[in-house]
Structure formats: C-alpha cells, structure tokens
Amino acid sequence: MAKQLHITNGDGLTDNIKELNLGGETVVWREMLCEGPTVYELGTDEFIELRTEFLSSNYNISKEEYETQFLQELNKLTKVNEFDEVVLWFEFDLFSHINMLAIISHLDDLKINVPVYLVCSKKLKGEDQFSPLSQLSLKDLNNHYVQRIHLNEDDLEMADLMWQLYNGENPQKLKLLIKKKTNFEYLSSCIRAHIERFPNSTTGLNTLEKNILKLISSNDISSMNQLLGYSLEYQGYFGYGDSQMQRILTKLKRFYSEENNQIRLTPEGTEALNGTRNFYRVLRNEEFFGGVRMYDFLYDSVSHNILKL
Prior knowledge:
Blueprint: E1 4-8, H1 11-18, E2 25-28, E3 36-37, H2 45-59, H3 63-75, E4 85-90, H4 94-109, E5 116-120, H5 138-146, E6 149-151, H6 153-166, H7 172-175, H8 187-195, H9 207-218, H10 224-233, H11 242-251, E7 256-259, E8 262-265, H12 267-274, H13 280-283, E9 288-290, E10 292-293, E11 297-300, E12 305-308
Parallel strand pairs: 1-2, 1-4, 3-9, 4-5
Antiparallel strand pairs: 5-6, 7-8, 9-10, 11-12
C-alpha cells in the first residue's frame, strides 16, 4: 500500500477521514488565506508577521495559537518526499481553494517529486446529492477518495501561478485565467467569486454584502442568529465560516436594524440595495485580499472587470 500524506481542510473533515482507515499521515490546514494580507512564500517572517497581526486583530487568535494550530502543521510538509503520494482534501468554495493554491505552491517550493491527488466536493455517480466533503457519509467520502483526481504538471503549475497572482498587485490578471482548463473543476467559479469581493463601482458594496441585504429584504428574519444562518446558507461559492460572516454583518450594521423581533433594512440599506447611492467612501477600510487592498479596486458588474483606483 502506498504511503500517503493527507492534507485536509480542517479538523471536522480530518476526523471523518481517519474513520476511513486509509493509513498514512495527516496535516491539518488551519488557515484562511482568502482574508487579510498574504505573501507568496509561506512560513517566512514576513508571512507570519502579516498573518498573526491580521488574525489577532480580527479574530483574537494569538501568536502562540497560530504557532500551535498552523505553523507546526505547516512544518510537517518538509517531509513530503518521504511519502509515495500526497492527497489533498478540499471543498469546492473560495475559502478552500485559496488555501489549496497556497499549499500546492508551497509543495513546489519544497521540490515535491511525488504524485499529488485531489479529493474535492462534487456529486459523483451513485450519490444522492451534492454535499460538502465534511457532510458526506463515510461510504460517499470513501467513494470520493477512490475516484480522487490526479493533478498533472500543468495543474500544479497553474495553481502556483494563481497563488502568485493572488499575492500580486493586479487582480485583473487572475480574472484572465478563468477560462483556462484544468482538473480543478470549481477553480473558475472561485476566481469569479474572488473578483466579486471587490466593491461594486455603482454601490460600493461587494456581491456578498449586497446578497445579505437581499436576504433581509426578501425574507422574514427575526434574529441575528437567523440572519447569520441565512447568510451562511445562501453565500454561494465564498465558503465563509461563522466568524468571517459575523464580521461582515458587523460591518453592514448601518444598513439594517433589529426591532420588535424583526430585522429590516434601514433607509441606507434600501439605497444600497437599489443602487441609488454609492457607499464606497462610507465603507472604505484597509482590508486586504492577498497582495492588494480591497478598496484600491472596483468591480464593474457590466464588464465584469476590475478597475484600479
């Protein structure tokens, strides 16, 4: 049996994989590189300083926690060539795919010379419905493993290039790769989702933020917990977790109010949703996506291009 290194997207999925008794060793990825500043080379002093400052300021994650939860796992990858193959276990969404691109790039830096396979959430033949890997039965999860995808040299080079561009100064270059064919079935959709995270040129809100206002407008929502649940369930390809989505809801608090067990749009919320006022200057902050500030660019929903300010 091949000696495998499994790289997994989180602890919940890892527990399920272990129940499959596949053998080998596991590295658990506990980062969310889709948010905040990043640099191309993982684990460098610059990378660690950027990430720990961002995670401490926004999610109360200490440097000690980062060392234990992430850096110690990252350091395990230095032994990658002691294995016969690497198996990546990642979901279909932007959150997972940005992490995956970074991992593949890092493996390239480590001069990996063993085959790399991908297990990604999708509906396979014989399965009843599409579900994230973490929600699959053990039988279906094993089915995904058996049908894992071999990533060829072109796939690995494309992943490395995309990670470079994510850390570059021009997100429009990423958009130009949307139509490139690879064995990453959901990568194009994830790039589109990333591009739409920049503020809309008309409203100043990005697609995810506007979608939250749509949910408030079109649903009977009685509590913040319910709003959080709706926002998570109907977010599409972004793949944000509870804490990330809660941070967005806090950012948008001027656009909705909670009174008499009812969450409704404020007048400003209605203006933002209808596109009758641009809130760019109101919302602008120093938030980063990879190598660029979120508010240094605008997304044009007509041309689907990114415009640098």
